[in-house]
Structure formats: C-alpha cells, structure tokens
Amino acid sequence: MTEKRYFIETWGCQMNEHDTEKMAGILSEMGYRATDSVDDADVYLLNTCTIREKAEEKVFSRLGVLKKVKEKRNGDMIIGVAGCVAQQNGGDIFQRAPQVDLVLGTQALKQLPEMVGRLHGHQGRQLNVEKDPDNHLFPSHVPKRGTSIRARITIMEGCDNYCTYCIVPFTRGRERSRPWQDVVNEAQRLAGMGFKEIELLGQNVNSYYSTVNFARLLRELQAVPGLETIRYVSPHPKDFDREVMETLRDCPKIATNIHLPAQSGNSRILKRMGREYTRELYMEKVYMIREVLDGIPFSLTSDFIVGFPGEKEHEFWDTVTLLDEVGYDRIFSFAYSERPGTGAVKHADSVPQAEKMYRLKILQQHQLEIQKERMGGRVGKTANVLIDTVKPGEEFPLVGRTRDNILVHIKAEVGSPERFYGRPVTVTVTGTGLHTLRGELCGQDPIEHLWSPIAASVG
Ligand code: SAH
Ligand code: SF4
Ligand code: F3S
User: Fold this and answer.
1) What CATH number corresponds to the domain at position 27?
2) What pTM was computed for the model?
3) Is residue 436 part of a domain?
4) Whose CA is nearest to atom 1 of ligand 2?
C-alpha cells in the first residue's frame, strides 16, 4: 500500500497557523506524510479565515481550482474546509462547493481522524461544527511545528467582546483559558527541545485567566530556562493594565512590542464599534505604558478600521491625528467589511467603497511618514537581535528580530553564518527600509542572551 499524503493551506491569524500545526500532527499520527504538491495530496485541507469578505472569497476561488484537480484524479482526493469559514458556513459549503468532502469547525480538530476514517469508508460527506469548549485542551506533543526556533502555544481561545464589526466571537466561541501549569509544562518541554522563542496565542491573549492572570502567567514563563523571548498575540487594550506593564519591565524575556489595537481615533465611532474605551482612555493607557516602560526600548503598534458605518469625514481625521499623537512604529489598517450576523449590520449608513479606499490610502501614507522618522531614529543605535534565519553567501546573511519585534537584516563577514542560528547577537543599526532595519554585526560572536546588557557585549 502506498503512503497517503496530505497538504494543508493556511490563511488568517497565528491561531490558524497553529491549528494547521495541530492538524498536521494529527494526520502524521494517522500515518500520513506531508507533501508540497497539490497533485499528489490524498487529503487536501484549506484552513480558512473569514475576518473580511475578501478572505472568504479567496477560499471559494481556491476551491474552484481544487475541483479541477479532483476531477483530473477521478474524484480520488479528499477536500476539506477547516477554520473560520467552515465554522461560520457549516453544511452550506457543500451546496456552494459540492467538491468538498469535509467541513471541520474550529473546535472539531480532535474529530479529524474519525471523520477522515469515515470518508475512506465511503460513509458520505463529513461535517462537524459542534462547540467543544475543551478544544483548547490539546495534547501538547501533537502539533507539528515548522521551525526549530519559534513555537506557538495556545493559552486561551475565543472572545467575549463582540466588537460590532467582528466575526471572531462567532467563529471561535466563548473565551476559555488553559490551566497555567499546562502552559508552563508545554513551554518547558519546548525549551528542552531547543526552541528559543515561544509565542502565546489567544484571540484576547491578555484576557487570559485560569487561577492566575496574564501577568502572573508571564512571570511563570520568565522562569523557564532556555527561552530567549516570549511573544504573545493578539492583545486587547482593555487588558493591558499596570500589572502587565510592570511584568514587562521586570521580565527581560517578555517581548516589548506593545500591540494596542485602537481601531479608531474617534470616541463616537469607538462606542459604535463596541470597544470599551474612548480616545481619551486609550491615550491614558499609552501614557501609562510610557511611564512604566521608561528607559526600556519598546515599540507600539495598532490595528485600524476605516469606513465603519456612519464614520463621517472629520471622525476619520480623528484617526489620522491619533497616529501623530501616539507615534506608532507600525499599523495594520483595513477598510471596513460587513460580516454576516455581526452587530454593525443593522447600521444603514454605510460609507461608499471608494471613500473607504481613499481613507485607507490617506491613513497608510500618513503612517509611512511617521514610520520613516521613527525608524530613522534607530539608525546609529545598537540593539540585540535573535537570529532566526541564516542565508549563507548573501550580503546580509543573518536575519532576526529585536525584543520589540523589529526585523533586522544583518551584514556580517563571518565564515560560517550557520553558527548564529538561534543565537542572539548585538548589531549597530545602519539603515532602514519601510518596516525593517539593516545592521552590522558588533563583534564576531553571538552574545549570551537577547536580554544581555548591550554595552557589555559590544567591542
Ligand atoms: N482579537 C484581535 C482582532 C483580530 S482581527 C483584536 O481585538 O485586536 C484583526 C484585525 O482585523 C482587527 O483588529 C480589526 O482591525 C480587523 N477587522 C476585524 N473585523 C473586521 C471587519 N469586519 N472589517 C475590517 N477589518 C476588520
Ligand atoms: Fe474581534 Fe473585538 Fe474580539 Fe478582537 S476583541 S476578536 S476585534 S470581537
Ligand atoms: Fe481569521 Fe478566524 Fe483568525 S476569522 S483572523 S482565522 S480567528
């Protein structure tokens, strides 16, 4: 019997990337092998995202391509849709795309073996979009992780905020957190395997609560030997309190890029969006962060939505001025996209598409100006960087990230750059791109830790 093969395509957020690692692990345990060719996959899964309408459209256009592949193979191929499009659309997917055999909701990953087994047994199409509030309690040895430096760990899933534009609470369910001992055990295991960086995942990662809060969990993880950095996505501004900031200040392994998704700079729109702060309260948070992290390099980033229903032009300009007031190192901005079943659908006063695109362009151009200046301000300074990519023979053979998550391409005339893989180094910043820095290696050797004092390691 020939070995069966699988292929998983992933869209969306880090949680989806990690769910793909979980599904890959499950399929490997079933005896499947990964393939990178569409044509010889026996099981082909699309792990999907529905955050905006475009994301969902991409899935159905991809399914159109896969239909032809399946026809060429006389139907001898299992096509599955997993992730948020699966959770949101359920069995309707079979109507719209009859070539699909399997619809696997976001909380049904553990059912994958049985469902695939039934498909092999010709028991007809398989659908599971049931809620399993324990799906976040996943055996930690199963995920098949891609790199050997950075590992993702789910610490909580779901969202109870119901921002009026957002589909995530419907696709990921209610908030639930993993016991902190589980998380620490997984981190210890990964550190023992040689991973240097862990990325904690959750739709509201800093709402984490399981007998201890997020700040306490971070302190527990700081104590895990072997780790260089602890990152986390995606946080909500309401849960960035003084205690979390003081933890960042005290624990040098915790990343210092503060993602503080504002969504809008106008308090009336924020209220309509169901965010739990006004512009003023948001700014207070920014001041608190600056005060507590005084003297520690950190970056501030945000997400924005332009053209939310009823957003007047002057209200949009409040978002533009917020960029100046805060001085973000990077933003991720989107034109509002209506999502079925969300609270904002009831607003009839939509902003025309062309206007949304115009506002998006203004916002992005404005940010680029701010960013040029902020990135320019880093030139000439030194920073520690954890190397996660090595490209022998290239002018910038080392690539890595600073503690505050800025990507740095490093010029280094060293014989064998491979020895830097997974190691921290000190660099002098020599130039900038739009989102990345260029730097030169200080000294010929790695340093002890990403958080080692910079002055002591230069020279
Ligand atoms: N839990 C995260 C959000 C993840 S979605 C948080 O609260 O920050 C990532 C981003 O997509 C959001 O921050 C928002 O800016 C954007 N987004 C979500 N729904 C959207 C919609 N309907 N239209 C446009 N952008 C949207
Ligand atoms: Fe969506 Fe708001 Fe929850 Fe973030 S906090 S996932 S934007 S509902
Ligand atoms: Fe997309 Fe679902 Fe993540 S909608 S952003 S894949 S939680």
Assistant:
1) 3.40.50.12160
2) 0.96
3) yes
4) 166
